[in-house]
Amino acid sequence: MENQNMSASIRKPLPPEHFIVHGTSAETRWEALRGHGEITPNELFFVRNHTTTPLIDVDTWRLRLWGTGLRRVTEYGYRDLLAMPSETLTAFIECAGNGRRLFTEQQGQPVHGISWRLGAVGVARWRGVRLATLLERSGLKPEAVAVMATGLDADYIEDGVNHGRVRRPLPLAKAMDDVLVAYEMNGRPLPPDHGFPARLVVPGWVGIASIKWLGDIEVSTEPLSSPWTTRFYRTAAGEPLREVVVKSAFELEWGARLETGRTHVLHGRSWSGHGAVTRVEFSADLGATWHPVSLIGRPSAHGWARWTVSWTPTTRGEHRLLARATDASGAVQPSHTPSDGTGYQFGAVAHHPVTLV
Ligand SMILES: Nc1nc2c(c(=O)[nH]1)N[C@H]1C(S)=C(S)[C@@H](COP(=O)(O)O)O[C@H]1N2
Ligand SMILES: [Mo]
């Protein structure tokens, strides 16, 4: 039977009230986050697959560290990882193309790639071993400068070109700073779709840095590159993308119907790869006037800020709701994101449509 909300590439159920499927990937519906705390439950977390979720046998799985930047080749099994000192980190993972559809919907600019609205982001509590710990235990040389993780999913073939396995280098400084080799997501072993048995979690950086289904990690004394820095996930000028830009979204259906003449308590979340969100404002008049929202709790450095704002609409018809966040670096969401044609890093204030009835 035909079911539009299935993807042969993803293992977990994708109920239509929770997900919008885009080929081998699926985005979370923002209204599905309503009522949840800081953590996106595993069942609701978006999936971005270049090909298909592989099923990996942990009994034979090995993570291999190798390269000119190490004194020796080292292998770790699943149980070896579990036995090492662990850390827990709350962090979002967001696809660099999140919001891409708004280049077209809001700014009239054509872009290619997955037509995500704003649901290609989630926050989880990740547990695992610091990549720094693994590198040090594997005989890291002082001359090492780059680290490249490769996934065990199938080769990525696009328009007849085989780009090989999904892989992307990180500068050593980031690898040693706060990157996790995670084996747990929200208190459970990583689900297959999210990288079982182990994935990288690279806080603040575009999702492609957080390689799933880790197979091996190359450490090099020379800078490294891959199609995921030279061809994909880079600026039009050729710079590999790193931190994601500050964004906001309402926990509300796109095109929700709201009653006029009564007060609505609206909820939303804001996040940034450049530091914790410090301030969020709300506008119901397309940005002519801005009003502060109430932040819930203390925004964490790598997670998101949750907020609420009360709003009493007085007129019927089509309307737009705007939320604008500022992060610790001082970056404020602009009213327009210049398009370089890549469809990445849409950070402008989104115009969330609602119908007032
Ligand atoms: N091996 C591998 N790692 C990968 C990918 C992939 O297709 N294969 N997709 C990347 C991209 S583009 C993103 S946005 C994140 C998404 O993580 P998630 O599917 O757990 O939400 O995984 C990254 N890691
Ligand atoms: Mo991504």
From TrEMBL:
Its cofactor is Mo-molybdopterin. Keywords: Metal-binding, Molybdenum, Oxidoreductase. Pfam families: Mo-co_dimer, Oxidored_molyb. Residues 50-228 form the Oxidoreductase molybdopterin-binding domain. The keyword Nucleotidyltransferase does not apply. One of its GO terms (molecular function) is heme binding. GO terms for biological process: sulfur compound metabolic process. InterPro entries: Ig_E-set, MoCF_OxRdtse_dimer, Mopterin_OxRdtase_euk, OxRdtase_Mopterin-bd_dom, OxRdtase_Mopterin-bd_sf. SUPFAM superfamilies: E set domains, Oxidoreductase molybdopterin-binding domain. Residues 262-336 form the Moybdenum cofactor oxidoreductase dimerisation domain. The keyword Ion transport does not apply. This is Mo-co oxidoreductase dimerisation domain-containing protein.
